[in-house]
């Protein structure tokens, strides 16, 4: 079996893509925030410096947890490989360069931080706490997942193809698996 590179997405290098994803992220953030304001009970919100500081710390921890979840799923599907963690172009990342995953595996790797953290945020609502900061954590995390959602879109757009995905520190490479009688176009 041979592979043909059919797409390469380098979010940290491709400025146009980064700007587009940031625009989508802001739009999603605004839509969810406005929705939350309409749904909220209309109670007053007080913002303090210590409250903002604690919220920022929780946001940083959530971002680190997000990348750790990616790393856990990289290891689930390739236990003998070494996951790399880093910070590039203002983004935290987890990567497993050189390892290729199936579409289903990479979808799990990509989407599970959103699923797990959203579940934990929903679970936290059973405690008697102020809900608006928790909702805003959900909004910020969800809008921060736009890159992951975009990867899933790109993977499943190739629905009729047998593809493998390689994660890199810059983004992903998508390969098509060629059968023995297929030829590689140059």
UniProtKB/TrEMBL annotation:
InterPro entries: DUF3267. The chain crosses the membrane at residues 20-39, 45-65, 106-127, 133-153. Keywords: Membrane, Transmembrane, Transmembrane helix. It comes from the Bacteria. This is DUF3267 domain-containing protein. It comes from Gracilibacillus salitolerans.
């Amino acid at each position: 079996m041979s592979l043909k590179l059919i797409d390469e997405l380098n979010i940290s290098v491709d400025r146009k893509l980064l700007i587009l994803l940031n625009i989508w992220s802001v739009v999603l953030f605004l839509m969810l925030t406005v929705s939350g304001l309409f749904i909220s009970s209309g109670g007053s919100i007080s913002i303090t410096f210590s409250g903002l500081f604690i919220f920022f710390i929780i946001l940083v921890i959530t971002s680190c947890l997000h990348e750790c979840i990616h790393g856990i799923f990289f290891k689930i599907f390739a236990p003998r490989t070494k996951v790399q963690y880093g910070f590039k172009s203002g983004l935290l990342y987890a990567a497993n360069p050189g390892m290729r995953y199936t579409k289903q595996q990479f979808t799990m790797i990509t989407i599970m931080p959103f699923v797990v953290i959203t579940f934990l945020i929903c679970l936290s609502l059973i405690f008697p706490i102020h809900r608006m900061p928790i909702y805003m954590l959900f909004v910020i995390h969800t809008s921060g997942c736009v890159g992951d959602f975009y990867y899933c879109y790109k993977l499943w757009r190739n629905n009729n193809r047998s593809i493998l995905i390689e994660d890199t520190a810059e983004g992903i490479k998508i390969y098509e698996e060629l059968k023995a009688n297929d030829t590689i176009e140059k």
